[in-house]
Amino acid sequence: MGIKALFSRLKGKFKISVVRNIVIVGSITLFVKLAGFYKETFVASSFGLSELLDSFYVAILIPSFIQAVFISSVKNIFIPNYITEIKVGKTENIGGFQTLGFLLISAIVLVFMGLTYLFGHFFLDIVFPGHTPYFYSITKSQLYIMTPCLLFWGGSSLLSALLDIDTKFLSSALYPIFTAICTIVFLVFFKEAIGEMVLAIGTLVGSLIGFVFLLWVTLKHKLILFGPPLINDNTRMMIKQLPPKISSGFLTGMNQFIDQFFAAQLVVGSISAINYGIKIPSFILTLSMIATGTVLLPYFSKKINEDRLQAFKDLFRILKVVFLAGLVVTLIIFIFSYDIIKFLFEKNEFTSKDTYTVSLIQQIILVYVPFYLCGNLLGKFLTSINKNSFMAWVSLYNLIANIVFNIIFMKLYGVYGLAISTSLVITISSFIYLYFTYKQYKIIGTE
Question: Are 313 and 304 in contact (CB under 8 A)?
Fold first, then answer.
């Protein structure tokens, strides 16, 4: 009877749309990330912790930074304000809001593509000094090949936002798989023909196919409703929130540049070691953040308009579950860290020495995973209530603390010190987010 009651209770929970959607997005994201991991085994086997692989990670750093800071910022502020606009119910307003969103993202992308082509090589010379001419040559070539990815990433971000708002989570969670598939195909069939540019070209082609897929799905469901650009209270609020959201994303994204900069001062392969050490923690984080964030940002945006106090209560309940689940999963991976890295990557150019280095970095990074999950969830919630200015100040603290901790711990522990610094910064900032959110809850409760 106890087992039957448990299954009956679970069945009842899965009737709740938000839980069902999280499970759907989580399942698809798991599939996509497994494909990405399969791709990484090819990359590790082909290049090991080499200068060529270092160059690829440095080259993709600039477009990835622009995506994480500017493109994601537009998407995150687009969703809650677009949902508010939908409540008004005027089709022409909805179409105009979409047009403004796409114009905004297009302008940002084109500006930064131009800046990358004009000044990207200067940036590489200044931020990553002391490398060989070969390193700079292949890094710049890969950077110029991958810069057009920004066009497809920008379009994909708003197309996926429209699908998320309309609860078409399956397609929006699936489209990143095309980049992994294309990279594998290019490594298997075109590595000899393309040579050093194989990873960059695979990334570009995969981004294009992913964008075309999302465009086809949104057109199929008639979600694109372009109209004359709309200027009203909602769009003004969206534009007003853009500077603090971008500032927060910029300062957060700079931490990756800072870590790569410090790693570049160490022995060859340190950049790759950091990137491989964060693969599995990133897998857990991305899976959880996409599964919860994709569903919960629209959910909280709607809930805030209906019952603000209940939205806070829902948040705190979800936080408890997320933290405990993250703690259990990361503890298991922590214990078997060396064996996991050996199984996934140790072959051909990836040696047992590489396995030891990467597994230890991974263990250090895993410490912050439960805190990062909760901090990200709190960030989504604060975005839904337009508290982006506070997050910008926290991001500034994180950046300063990361620089200071990197200097201290890198001198003491080398590449492992960079991982220690990151874990400390993220853990502390998650508590700051929680404290601020709880204060907002108390304020709402006394009104």
Answer: no
CA 288/CA 26 separation, integer angstroms: 7
The fraction of the chain above a pLDDT of 90, given in percent, is 4
Output the six-digit token pair for 217: 């799905």
Residues 6+ positions from 438 with CB-CB distance below 8 Å: none
**Angstrom distance (rounded) from CA 317 to CA 374:** 11
Torsion region of 235: left, alpha or beta (phi above 0 gives left; psi -120 to 50 gives alpha):
alpha
Q: Are 176 and 32 in contact (CB under 8 A)?
A: yes
Structure-token match 């500017």, residue found? 70
For the chain, domain boundaries: 18-446
Instruction: Tell me the C-alpha distance between 177 and 48, whole Å.
Output: 23
Q: What pLDDT is attached to residue 17?
A: 58
Contact 281, 369 (CB under 8 A): yes
Residue tagged 């090589």 (tokens): 121
What 8-state DSSP symbol labels residue 225?
Answer: -
Sign of the torsion formed by the C-alpha atoms of 73, 64, 119 and 276: positive
Residue 159 CA to residue 18 CA, distance in Å, equals 21
Average pLDDT of the segment spanning 188-214: 84
3-state secondary structure at position 374 = helix
Q: List Cα–Cα distances, 30 to 6, 98, 171, in angstroms.
A: 25, 30, 14
The owner of tokens 């927060």 is: 248
* Site of tokens 């950091």: 274
CA–CA distance, 81 with 76 (Å, rounded to integer): 9
Q: 285-341: per-residue pLDDT in tens?
A: 766 666 565 666 666 766 676 677 777 887 888 788 888 888 888 888 888 888 888
C-alpha–C-alpha distance, residues 80 and 85, integer Å:
9
- The structure tokens listed for 378 are 């709190």
Note whether 173 and 294 are within 8 A (CB).
yes
- Angle (CA) 171 174 177, round 5°: 150
Long-range contacts of 115-118 (CB under 8 A, 24+ apart): 116/62, 116/63, 116/66, 116/143, 116/147, 116/150, 117/144, 117/147
Selection from 122, 184, 145 nearest residue 63 by Cα: 145
- pLDDT at residue 445 tops 70: no
Q: How far apart are CA 149 and CA 206, in angstroms?
A: 9
Distance between terminal CA atoms of the chain?
A: 45
CB 361 within 8 A of CB 419: yes
Question: Which two structure tokens, joined as six digits, stand for 287?
Answer: 């899976």
Mean pLDDT for all residues in the chain: 77
pLDDT tens profile 72-117: 878 877 877 777 777 766 556 777 888 888 888 888 889 988 988 8
